[in-house]
Amino acid sequence: MFELEERTLPNANVVLILGILSILGCCCYGLPGILLGVVALILHKKDKDLYLANPSIYTNYSNLNAGFIMAIIGVVLSFIFILMIVWAISTIGLETLQDPELMRELME
User: Fold this and answer.
1) Burial classification of residue 84, based on how many CB atoms lie within 10 Å of its CB (0-12 exposed, 13-18 middle, 19 or more buried)
2) Which residue has the higher pLDDT, 88 or 4?
């Protein structure tokens, strides 16, 4: 009998790194978090299909799942951040947000 050699999933570590960066990217007006999170989700799908085809030869599936969870969190946080920015601009106004004097008057 022949023995199958264990391999690592090709994009598992990349998905993990992109998931972490998508959480950090949500603080940069949300757009980097969404972009990095979506790329991580696409790579996760490809590697998950590869793993499900033959799960006995791949070893780092836990990294793939951790990256997937972080990518979802990053996308959701980025979406919430973008919604907060749109809400602030629509209720307060862009001119008020850019002028500290007007903002101080509005707060008092």
Assistant:
1) exposed
2) 88
Q: Cα torsion for 85, 91, 92, 97, to the nearest 10°?
A: 20
The span from the CA of 48 to the CA of 23, in Å, is 21
Domain boundaries, the chain: 12-80
pLDDT digits (tens, 9 = 90+) for 35-94: 999 999 999 999 999 999 999 899 899 999 999 999 999 999 999 999 999 999 999 888
CA–CA separation, 20 vs 75, rounded Å?
Answer: 11
Distance CA 51, CA 14 (A): 15
